[in-house]
Write a structure and sequence with these properties.
Helix content: 40-55%
Radius of gyration: 17 Å
Distance between the termini: 59 Å
Strand order of the largest sheet: 3-2-1-4-5-7-6
Oligomer: single chain
Shape: globular
Order of helices and strands: HHEHEHEEHEEE
Number of strands: 7
Largest sheet: 7 strands, mixed
Strand content: 15-25%
Number of helices: 5
Length: about 180
């Protein structure tokens, strides 16, 4: 029994290390954002500032464990909620968390740069400047008029925010296309 447990723990450790090496590669060479979740204080402030229809289509790009979508679900349970995550460990955490809470989040393991999000009413991002710069052209060409973009801490450099909210020493940028 002890040997089986040791093998299981060793396999888990190896998978954990491999996933973090992949994340390291994605951060350094692909310029992806690291896995850092948005805090509850920020999410609550963003939710209080939202202009959202109760049946809106909401995306969280680079969703990690999908904290923003979890909070939106509590306030707007009729919304269609889609999380896009490329890294394996955060994707699995979001999938398991979604199933355990029995909500209707769709968590998709895909590269956000090639994903079709033109049905979005709202897109939430907590990424980095490199990721926002990659996405800004797609936002300009692919989004429907009226789509909202909310970006925590990293603005779109080609567009003026409709509203900027300071939370602690960071900013949340609200855009409407």
């Amino acid at each position: 029994m002890i040997v089986v447990l040791q093998i299981f723990l060793l396999a888990f450790l190896v998978l954990f290390l491999i996933s973090y090496l992949i994340q390291f590669f994605n951060i350094i060479f692909r310029k992806n954002a690291p896995y850092i979740g948005t805090g509850k204080k920020v999410i609550n402030k963003v939710l209080n500032e939202l202009e959202l229809d109760e049946k809106a289509v909401v995306y969280e790009l680079g969703c990690g464990s999908a904290p923003f979508l979890q909070a939106v679900y509590k306030r707007y349970p009729k919304s269609e909620l889609i999380g896009i995550e490329y890294s394996l460990v955060p994707f699995l955490i979001a999938k398991v968390r979604s199933r355990l809470t029995n909500n209707k989040l769709q968590i998709i393991k895909k590269d956000m740069y090639s994903f079709d999000f033109n049905s979005a009413d709202l897109i939430y991002c907590y990424l980095n400047m490199a990721s926002m710069n990659k996405l800004k052209q797609r936002f300009d060409t692919d989004l429907r008029p009226g789509t909202q973009i909310i970006s925590y801490n990293f603005p779109l450099t080609n567009r003026e925010a409709k509203k900027v909210v300071k939370i602690g020493g960071k900013y949340v940028y609200f855009y409407k296309f």
